[in-house]
Known about the structure:
The structure holds 2 protein chains of 2 kinds. Chain A has helices spanning about 5-25, 30-55, 60-80, 90-110, 115-120, 120-135, 160-185, 200-220, 220-240, 240-260, 265-275, 285-295, 320-355, 355-380, 400-425; strands at about 140-145, 145-155, 155-160, 185-190, 195. Chain A is mostly helical. By secondary structure, chain B is an alpha+beta fold. Chain B has 1 helix and 11 strands; from the N terminus they run H-E-E-E-E-E-E-E-E-E-E-E. Chain B has one helix at about 1-30, and strands at about 65-70, 80, 90, 100, 110-115, 120-125, 130-135, 135, 140-145, 150, 155-160. The chains are: A mainly alpha, B alpha+beta.
Amino acid sequence: xxxxxxxxxxxxxxxxxxxxxxxxxxxxxxxxxxxxxxxxxxxxxxxxxxxxxxxxxxxxxxxxxxxxxxxxxxxxxxxxxxxxxxxxxxxxxxxxxxxxxxxxxxxxxxxxxxxxxxxxxxxxxxxxxxxxxxxxxxxxxxxxxxxxxxxxxxxxxxxxxxxxxxxxxxxxxxxxxxxxxxxxxxxxxxxxxxxxxxxxxxxxxxxxxxxxxxxxxxxxxxxxxxxxxxxxxxxxxxxxxxxxxxxxxxxxxxxxxxxxxxxxxxxxxxxxxxxxxxxxxxxxxxxxxxxxxxxxxxxxxxxxxxxxxxxxxxxxxxxxxxxxxxxxxxxxxxxxxxxxxxxxxxxxxxxxxxxxxxxxxxxxxxxxxxxxxxxxxxxxxxxxxxxxxxxxxxxxxxxxxxxxxxxxxxxxxxxxxxxxxxxxxxxxxxxxxxxx
Amino acid sequence: xxxxxxxxxxxxxxxxxxxxxxxxxxxxxxxxxxxxxxxxxxxxxxxxxxxxxxxxxxxxxxxxxxxxxxxxxxxxxxxxxxxxxxxxxxxxxxxxxxxxxxxxxxxxxxxxxxxxxxxxxxxxxxxxxxxxxxxxxxxxxxxxxxxxxxxxxxxxxxxxx
Lengths: 436, 161
């Protein structure tokens, strides 16, 4: 007996349809978006059915949430780029990326149903992650807007750090599950806090070095932050030692202070955050436009197609949440945030239900990355913290980000399938009761 | 202009309504399977006899899981303690479900085993010498798997599911 969540799925697709219908009405657009919208709806519904068929015990809410978030993103991207010179085709490209992402998810689900084999190759994953990060330093990499994030291989352009993160989390899950006892053992006590032996710390230190490299050479603050925070949190969860968090926080404080004084691109971000008005047409322009647009939205928003979010540079990627807040208002933005929250909740629940340490850590790591990414970019565009260029998962425009996030959803699905099978096998815990 | 405004306003309201309907549906579906997780035994008192079984758990078959003594100053090796579905306390006080009497290394209320969401968790109740799971000091609620060892005072139990 399969668990179903058809209702949320239908609602998610209805949101997308209504969004497109409104836009066609407001912008007097012609029919192409409808056709692409139909393709989109068809693809995701087929994906939902396929996953229900192949992974009957997996988490049912992941895909409706993905559908809702990508749908809102697609509607907003279409709205923001329609009739804008140079950006006209972005919504169609995004629809193609979502199609590709769905393929990647199915691929992940089919290939890695027995995902425990992944942990046998954990060092290979670590190597792949470092390799991907280093790829941008080679002649294959190139700069966009001052950050060297992109790699061109033949006709394909992609951001390797999006995939490096996933490889790294797989490595850490495998490594920490194996070494957690050693990492948790106390070797000395300083000032009442128990400090573990630092010998097994090597890989973590290496990744932190890579994160610093990202910061210095690629000017990629967002990825750098993720590469720092995720190993730290996974380490804490694996060992239960607060010492790691204290150590990490001190390193973060020292590191960011040093980075501020050494690198001008960090200073620019901090200046724009502290006082965007000192250069409202330059450094502060983006964040000010974002704030104006969010304020313009008010409680219920200006309505789709009636806002002025196009004035924000890069609105379809990093600043898409400002556009959502502007046109759907506080209520719409809250609904989207709640959807993110439920996704994170499901991820943590999958992690709790998972059958072994490495799966737990993998699910936890992926969920945390998703959560931190959302937190960092939304805090950035609302001027709560300095802005770091990072995409809003599933919503922002961007091929690498979309495909990477679909792969994450795929891995979470296979982990929940394993956990679901185990739950089902146990007579003591009735997964179905109260959920029909 | 006015006739354009009304349908737009309706579309806007409908979109927000749909968004929240989605969130409602997802949250409702999402917490549905939490309802089945047993409640915490907040009112559990060490001295009181355990009430037989709580509503909702009674319908479920009992667990076959048990604790088997591996090595101890006070129990014979191989002594078995069946774990029922409720929470089971271990300690020196006579109100405990498993009484480790005259064990100098155990505290009065030493540790508690409780079941949440299909997993058995062991939690140290602030004992002096701590509770160890597989040789590691248990911090917070630690889930037990088949074959794990739990050390309370001088006694080492093996958990069998």
